[in-house]
Amino acid sequence: MIYDLEQIKRRCDKEKGKLFTIPKDCFGKRSKGYPIYKPTTYLRKWDFRDGPDEVLSKYDLEPIRYIYCGSHTRRTQRDRDYQFYRDIVKRKKASKEIREFFVNYINYYVNEKNEDIIEVVKRFFKAKEMIFLNEKNKNVAERHINDRYLVEQAHGKKIKVLSTSPKDTTLILDKATNRLKERDIFIGEYKNSIDEMITSYVVEYIKNNKDVAEVYQLMDYYLEKVDFIESEDK
Q: Tag placement on the chain: N or C end, fewer CB within 10 Å?
């Protein structure tokens, strides 16, 4: 059976709230690994690189990794996962691309892998990595992570960034030319982030007596696909 978004919603509703119910002991001792009310940047990854092209194409999927990076200040990551579910399935507030990818993901695993639909939905919304930051830096970190994945995508790496709204990235990918350009509202931010990253790497390499030439090759990699806007202040 091929499900649409409404059918997935109705199937999840049959769980009577169990899908994202948070047990009282879920938080345990609330260790540093799962703090509450901590500004968080999180990463979601869905990997189809081992899937057969001809099978994936039936669901408008490709043999690549799909990437989504976001940020939040909700009680825990679990609460954000539920909010993401609501944005996609219930309120349909998420982007059309995300909603369509979610439906394709569910249908692939239910029909091709014979997996339980509820378990597939749960897995879809589980964040892979979390970075705990301060309120000011969480959105900046989100943009910079998305930007670097966009650069890798432009270089032909088998990934696709799904978090590409104006608040998610400082760069825009032109699929026709496979080049990136800066958003007008974030001029200079991406280059500054790369400069900071390279500076920290140089210090680390010098400290460990390693060849810094590798670091500058990395800098070229992250800059050569980007068309920068000249600041009017110059």
A: C
